[in-house]
Structure formats: C-alpha cells, structure tokens
Amino acid sequence: MGFLPLNRREMTALGWERPDFVYVIGDAYVDHPSFGHAIISRVLENAGYQVAICSQPDWKDPDSVNDFGTPRLGWLVSGGNMDSMVNHYSVGKHRRKTDAYTDGGVIGKRPDYATVVYCNLIRRTHPHEPIIIGGIEASLRRLAHYDYWSDRLKRSILLDSQADLLLYGMGEKSIVEVADALNNGLSVRDLTFLAGTAYRTTEADPDGAIVLPAYDELLKSKRRYAESFYLQYQNTDPFSAKRLIEPYGREFVVQNPPQMPLTTEEMDAVYALPYENAPHPSYKNGVPAIAEVQFSLVSNRGCFGGCSFCALTFHQGRIVQTRSHASLLEEAERMTQHPQFKGYIHDVGGPTANFRQPACEKQRKSGACPNRQCLFPKPCRNLRADHTDYVNLLRELRALPRVKKVFVRSGIRFDYLLADKSDAFLQELVRYHVSGQLKVAPEHVSAPVLRRMGKPEHAVYEEFCRRYRALNERLGLKQFLVPYLMSSHPGSTLTEAVELAEYCRDLGYMPEQVQDFYPTPSTLSTVMYYTGLDPRTMEPVYVPTDPHEKAMQRALIQYRNPKNYALVHEALEKAHRTDLIGFDAKCLIRPRKGEKPAAKQASAPKKQTKQPPVPKKQAAQPKAPTKKQTERSAAPKKPSPAGKRGKQPVPHSTSKRQTPAPPTAAQLARAERYLKSRKK
C-alpha cells in the first residue's frame, strides 16, 4: 500500500483533501512495527482513518506543522521511540553526538522535551483543535514526576503541553476509541471514560477513585511523593486499577485504568498490517535504529520481571501478551525475501525473550497481584515456569528455508529459566541460539543493592553460570557469558562498589562499557534517587548522587583501565580497602611509585569501622636510598687525571648549590635578538 504521506505533495497524490489526523513525531518516519508511530498510524488506517506524518518539524517555525493544513479530527503528538531527554543526554548530562532515530544519525533534529515543545508549537496556530499525546515520553510523565535533567519535580505533561488527552501504554485500543468518538461528533473534552487515557479537568468525581496528594504537597515533602508514586505503581493493572486523581490547585489530572491487554488474535492483527518495514525513501543516509530490528521478530510484550530501574510496569504492564507461531512464521518468511537478508534472524523476543505466557493462570482472569512480585525475592509458588512454547517456536523458525541461524539477543531472565524443571530451553539456547557470547543482566553482586533493584540474589546467577559452563563443556563449545553490570544504583555505597570490582577481578573480566544508573521518569529506582526512600517499604536508602562518587563507582568496575587509576585509588582509600592496593594477585591496583603497599590482611572486611581521619598534609619524609644508589656510594672512587684546563671534577655536594654567575652582555644581546625573531 506504500508509505503514509510525509508532505502535502504525497497527500495530494493519494487524492486526499485533508487528513483526519496529522501525526507529529520526534523520530524520522520508519514504517516498521518496532516504531510506535508506525503501529498507531497503521492501526488508524486499518480503522478507516487518514493519517499524515509530520516528522521532526522545525520547532522554531510555527508554519513547519502546517504543511497538511488543519486535520479534520485532531493532532497526534509523540516525542519518539525514546524520551527526548534520554535521546539527547548521557547519564552524565553530556550531549550525545548521534541520534539513531534520525536520518544519518544527525543529532539536534528534535528539541528537548519534544512532546511539550511540539504541542505548544501547534497551539500557536491551532488554539482550539484537539491535541492527543502519546508515546513513551508522555506515558511515563502522565502524572507528577521527578525530572533528572532539571533536578526537580515536574507537573503532569498534560499541563505543560496544553494537550487535551494523553494515551499511555501501547495504545492500539484506546486510539481507535478516541478516533471513533471524535468522528461521531463528541468533543475531546467529553472523552473522560476511555481506558488507557489521562485528561485534565476542573471537576473531578472522587467516587470510586484514589485521590493522590496535591502537587503543592509533593513539592514540600519527598516522603509524600514516594507514597504517591507507590499508589500509582499498585494501580497499573487493568483488572484491579482504580481511577487516580492528582490535584493541581483548581485543576485536576485524572488517570483512567489501563487498557486491557491484547489477545493473541488482536496482537497478530496489529503485526499483520501492511508495514513497509523500512524508513521513508526520502531519507538518503539511512536511519541507524532500523539496523537492530529489521531482521528481528517481536514475540511478546509486557514483563512480570519487576526490575526497580525499569519503566515497563508503567508502560506495557506486567501481563505478558504474545503473538501466535503462525504470525511470527509468516513475518519471518517475508523477512527471508528481503534482498539484504543474509540468513540470520537477529532476535526473537521482546522486553524479556523467554516470557511467552502470563506468570500464572490467575493473571489471565484477575490480573497481576498489586502487592507481590512474581520473581522477587523468590519465584512465586503459583509461577508457571515453562519454556515449551518458546522452544517449539525457535525450532519452527530454524526449519524455515533460507534461515541459517536464529539468535536470541533480548534479555533472558535466568531466574525464570532455572525455575523451569526442564532444561530443554537451556540446551537449545546453548546449542543453537548463541553467537559466541550470551548477554545476561545480573546487574550487581551485593545483596543490599540487588534487593533495591528487585533482582534475585547473586547465588541464583552463580547457579546459572555453573549450568551454562557445564553444558558448553559437554557440547564441546566455547561460548561465554557477558554480564551487564550497573554502578551507582540506590543502595550502593563504595563498599558495595568494591565488592562488585572484586567479582570482576575473580571473573577475569573487565567490561568495556558500564551502565551508570540513569534516573529516568516513573521507575521505583528513580523515586529512591530523588527521595532517598524505598517507596515499597519507606526505608531510607543510601543514594550516590555526587558525580565524583559516581565516577569512582564506575571506575572500580573498570579498574584495569589505566585512565581510572586515580579514581580507583581514591575509592579504595575512602572505602578503607587499601588491602587491595599492592602486588598480590588479589589486589586491584599497584601502589604509586614510592608508596608502600598495605599490610596483607587475612580476610579484608566488607565493612570496617570508621578510621581516624588522615591529615591532609604530612611533612615530607626522606626517601630511603635505592640499591643502585647504595652500591654507587660504597664503590671506591677512581682518581681523576687533570683535565686539559688543569681542573679537578667537582664532586656532588649535599650542601646548598652556589648561586650561578650573572649573564654576560654578549649573552643578553643574543637573548634579545632571539625574542625579537620569535615576535616576528
């Protein structure tokens, strides 16, 4: 069917007078189901609506959004596949050099806080038209949230953007309901009843709803914000969630319960839509983000893993939704016909590759438990850990003509894998689906940090490593595990960071890249970072916020890098672990020149009592003579014959040297001539 129109010329060629919706996006237009704007626009097209794409408009020019004129039903706005601030800045708040979602990877084609900027741009020329916002940026900022880049608590994005309606989550059902309601003549102000939406109003009915603390109250008390966020966290399930009301003076933001999860048939229908599976042909330099997904298959969505630093619970929910084998095989067969396909399917997965069904039968009927996790701290007794369906799917994909290899590159939950009584999936994974290295995410080794992360204890990961190594040896394969590690997560002091560095030392592995904890909106870990409290228990949490300490924690994991020596040395001193400075095999770094290694300890304590303060400056101690200096001084001196000038060589003296003679007039003249030539 071809691409949707990207400009007025393409719209006119389709015979449209004006579109039903103009979809303003922060990414380049890529018609592939891994891009949110492609799914939403194709779902609307399938429902009978005409959608024009306004990609990366010039936010400094109000006319840049007016190419298609005024849409018949309204404006759709998305900041892109990533939060625009994560897209622009590293965790150290340094500007990134490339943008994978832009033609040629060029940075700067979208503004900071893109959703807000685009909406205000539209409002300048279309003050009364409906604006509906969605995408990851809007979804995770739908209520009051901590913004890491400005280091403050921000209001709901609905208020700052002046949008009328917000669609959170994936949005396939709610966007069609919104379009149908507008098409039937309802005002956007009357759309207060749709699941998966949030809206602003001056009148909110508290009956059957949870009234959250007011925004002004949240600004005054971080504890109240932690309590408010956990209420939101407990109301992310479509079966049990209540309506949430957040007061802002005379105005309210109301969040309706999430949309119901898609059935397998509904999800198959979404992925069967006529995507072009490529960037729009107007892009001449290529959109880098397509490379990772062009020959990959999305098998599922949703995740019951419950990691504290992940926003999936807030966006896709905890109930896993899957596509059928037939749908995936059909897409794979189309993929093999692509001229650039080399025989390799890069991935078959989703947020977590080995989740192919809801965690338990209860979730299908009643949803996820609001106060319990499926895998943390231990797997729930009702958990259904079974990889049979996934194993059969991978076998069917391997059997397709022209398919040489099928890789699994999405993250796998090793604790869920170990909970399965059968080892069939692990055997298939090792034998057929690893490309030399299997990437897994233990994230840390310290129990206090893992507890805050919502990750299984380290012994579980060690058991997985043991089984993985044994299976590779049995099959005669040399395949390695590459662990993803995170530094500076809430709960991690320098003591825990040193513990992680010791683990890397014992493993004989130094990661090339380390993920420093990134406080993105609407995660439990971000709330800990901002409030210093664990919202689940309200316990105080140590939070490394100082950039220098975070640099030390990151450097400890990469202690072998010579550039990190000074930071590692300082960190070991502050953690009272100078026993790791020396020449022993267990030491992380060698002492500085002239520095004596610390005395060996039988077993270095993980946490030591507070040491007396070290004076900042000490009197310089005379250096002990080296062996060579001692031999030189002890050797008998040979008598020197008289030189041509009849003078004896002057012996080295420890006394103060004599003042040199002043320069002669000739020397001064030469120096003056040299300076004049340098000036020229």
Task: Produce a short descriptive summary.
Helix content is 33%, strand content 13%.
Describe it.
The longest helix is centred in the C-terminal third of the chain and has 18 residues, at 458-475. The termini are far apart. Strand 23 (533-534) and strand 24 (539-540) form a beta hairpin. With 680 residues, the chain is of the alpha/beta class. Helix content is 33%, strand content 13%.
Low-pLDDT stretches are 601-659
Number of helices: 25
Q: What gyration radius follows from the Cα positions, in whole Å?
A: 32 Å
Shape: globular
> What strand line-up does the widest sheet have?
3-1-4-5-8-9-12-11-10
**Can you give the mean pLDDT?**
90
Distance between termini? 71 Å
Specify the helix fraction band: 25-40%
Q: How many extended strands?
A: 24
Our estimate of the beta-strand percent is 5-15%
Q: In terms of structural class, how would the helical and strand content be classed?
A: alpha/beta
**Biggest sheet record:** 9 strands, mixed
How is the topology of this model organized?
Blueprint: H1 8-13, E1 21-25, E2 30-31, H2 36-46, E3 51-55, E4 74-78, H3 84-88, H4 114-125, E5 131-134, H5 136-139, E6 145-147, E7 152-154, H6 157-161, E8 165-167, H7 172-183, E9 197-201, E10 209-211, H8 215-220, H9 222-233, E11 243-248, E12 251-255, H10 264-271, E13 278-279, H11 290-293, E14 296-298, E15 300-301, H12 312-315, E16 321-322, H13 325-336, E17 344-345, E18 347-349, H14 361-366, H15 388-398, E19 405-406, H16 414-419, H17 424-432, E20 437-443, H18 447-453, H19 458-475, E21 480-487, H20 494-507, E22 515-516, H21 524-531, E23 533-534, E24 539-540, H22 547-557, H23 565-574, H24 627-634, H25 665-679
Helix pairs in contact: 2-7, 9-21, 17-19, 20-22, 22-23
